[in-house]
Amino acid sequence: MSTKKFILTERDIPTAWYNIVADMTNKPLPMMDPKTKQPVTEESLQQIFAKELVKQELNTTDAWIEIPEPVRDLYKIWRPTPLVRATGLEKALDTPAHIYFKNESVSPVGSHKLNSALAQAYYCKQDGCTNITTETGAGQWGAALSMASKIFGLELAVYMVKVSYHQKPYRRSIMQTFGAQVIASPSMSTKAGRKILTDTPNNQGSLGCAISEAVELAMQTPNCKYTLGSVFNWVNLHQTVIGLEAEKQMEMAGEYPDSIIACFGGGSNFSGIAFPFLRHKLTDGKDVEVIAAEPASCPKLSKGRFQYDFGDEAGYTPLIPMYTLGHKFMPSNIHAGGLRFHGAGSIVSQLQKNGLMRAEDVNQLEAFDAATLFAKSEGIIPAPESSHAIAVAIRKALKAKEEGRKEVILFNLSGHGLIDMAAYDSYIAGDLTVGGVSDEDIARNLKSVEEFRI
Ligand SMILES: *Cc1c(COP(=O)(O)O)cnc(C)c1O
Question: CATH for 67-110+234-452?
Answer without folding.
Answer: 3.40.50.1100
